[in-house]
Design brief:
The chain contains 12 helices and 10 strands. By secondary structure, the chain is α/β, with parallel strands linked by helices. It has 2 domains: 31 residues; 218 residues, D-Maltodextrin-Binding Protein, domain 2. Strands 3, 4, 5, 6, 7, 8, 9 and 10 form an 8-stranded mixed sheet that branches. Strands 1-2 form a two-stranded parallel ribbon. Helix 2 packs antiparallel against helix 10 and helix 6 crosses helix 11.
Length: 332
Amino acid sequence: MHRRSYRRCAFAAVVTAALVLSATQIVLAQRTTTLRLPHCCAVDSHFDVGAKRFAELVAEYSGGAIQVEVFPGGQLGQETEVIQNVQQGIIELTLIGHDPLAQFAPITTILSLPYLFDDHDQAFALLEGQLGVEIESQLAGRNLVVLGWGNNGARVYTNNRRPLETPADFRGLKFRSPQSPVNLAVTEALGGIAVAIPYGEVYTALQQGTIEGQENAVINIYPANLQEVQSFMSMTHHLLSFTVLVANKGWLDGLPADQRAAVERAALEAMAFQRAHVVTLTDDLVARMEAAGVIVNWPDLGAFREATRAVHDAYVGRSFSQDLYDLIRRAD
């Protein structure tokens, strides 16, 4: 009898423990939210570094209640499509380059003007003030909330003819730019011949001599192996690029206060981490370009600023206000 009673009690204990464990797992599963965070670029790119850091931090700060699955390489669509899906709440958030946002909030065009900012540090300081307030307000009206701003590099020119010390050195040279009115206008204002070519075709176009040069950030130039078909790199820093961590407004507003605080804290810290990473990465890749035989020069940018000033006129008072533009100019 005692043996049977013991067995019945032991069996009951095992069943009870299993039920408790199962119930605990169900409760935890119910309390855990998994978000999707797509971005355009390759695994271990500067986009991926920022996205993965955000995923780590939001899991930590939410006590595991929020998990983030990162989808690199455009797996969930190209940037414009992904932004639309975030806007509609199909995807919770995304990490993107800032340029496509102009389709949703024209004010963001101000970030793309040549030499408007001295450097990324100045731009980030302004984005933490009135500039950021106005941009983020317009995006919020489109159901998009900016969680943080990151660094997408400063664009420079490369070519296979000569160092670009002054705008006069651009004459007669064909440079690839993306299909962007601002980028094309900058090259033309500097005296070059602007040619819009898809990014994937740049290497072949340079190799075959269809164009002599191109412009992009160093963090994109070296991974594309353009050092194999270019001899000179001029650090013009004519356009600054930004990454932006953007969330669906309805989703964010619906979070419990503690979870929203965790998301916002993780976003700010992840973007700060990404900014520092890009600075270090850029320095490293410039050194690698030089080691590969590319001649790097740092021109005096005064003449470049003057030559491209007229590009601003096409957007001031149209895509953004004169007052906002003047606010930034006064910060110089």
